[in-house]
Amino acid sequence: MNKFRLNIDGKEVFGIPGQTILEVARENDIEIPTLCYDERTEIYGACGLCVVEVEGNPKLCKACATQIAPNMIVNTKTPRVIESRKTNLELLLSNHRGDCRPPCKLACPAGTDCQGYVGLIANGKYREAIELIKERIPLPGAIGRVCPHPCETACRRGLVDEPISIAWLKRFAADHDLFGEDPFMPEIAPETGKNVAVIGGGPYGLSMAYFLRRMGHEVTIYEAMPKLGGMLRYGIPEYRLPKEILDEEISLIERMGVTMIPNVKIGKDIAFETIRRDYDAVCLGIGA
């Protein structure tokens, strides 16, 4: 195949028709900065950091999106190029958060730090991973099994090959902790002297109790059914969510100091007014 001869920064190089300036430059160890370019994905050319001067073209060209031509003369470090790159970078950063929130986290209804615990698991830091997960999800073993994982639909890794198995990794971290010698117990704030009644022992009520107890409040859960768990226990089959997993996670919440009272129907076995009178606050978590 015939090759094109071109000149980049005074260096004579060769490229195959159809290649971009950036591709030829990289093959010849000529540095052109980029932010949005990845050879595994479709060319986007949004960042504007790879602009170069091409002799005969009055406009700056994006090296990632401009194909080479015979006898092309390219300059990558002229004052005009450097100033344009600086301006483009300043514009990108002017309205940009210091810590980007990734699409997986934005897609998670609980706002879980998905990329955080995936990275911790990848580095073998399982204890730190479950601590991070439980900042948002008190029942990760159960949720890791039944969550429809919208985080994976939004995962940018899918642009390259396939999404990371975020829900399975959450489940792994939860099981590793749950059946280890020393399951993670969150730090509880100093006692506030306030007591809270949570009506409903499903995932919503259990989650409320978990976070309220972490804040130092005394918490009591009232549940109408014989066992706590709500839809997780009575609506999801055993093969999908083993009751052993659910029981262990509920047990951890109970060990935090949460009082759990099953087989009590508010308004029948105990008056709601009595609950309101005896507690500083009442939270309704009756679910569906």
UniProtKB/TrEMBL annotation:
CDD domains: fer2. It comes from the Bacteria. Keywords: Oxidoreductase. InterPro entries: 2Fe-2S-bd_N, 2Fe-2S_ferredoxin-like_sf, 2Fe-2S_ferredoxin-type, DPD_II, FAD/NAD-bd_sf, Glutamate_Synthase, Helical_ferredxn. It comes from Blautia hydrogenotrophica (strain DSM 10507 / JCM 14656 / S5a33) (Ruminococcus hydrogenotrophicus). The keyword Transport does not apply. GO terms for molecular function: iron-sulfur cluster binding; oxidoreductase activity. This is 2Fe-2S ferredoxin-type domain-containing protein. The keyword Oxidoreductase applies. Residues 2-80 form the 2Fe-2S ferredoxin-type domain.
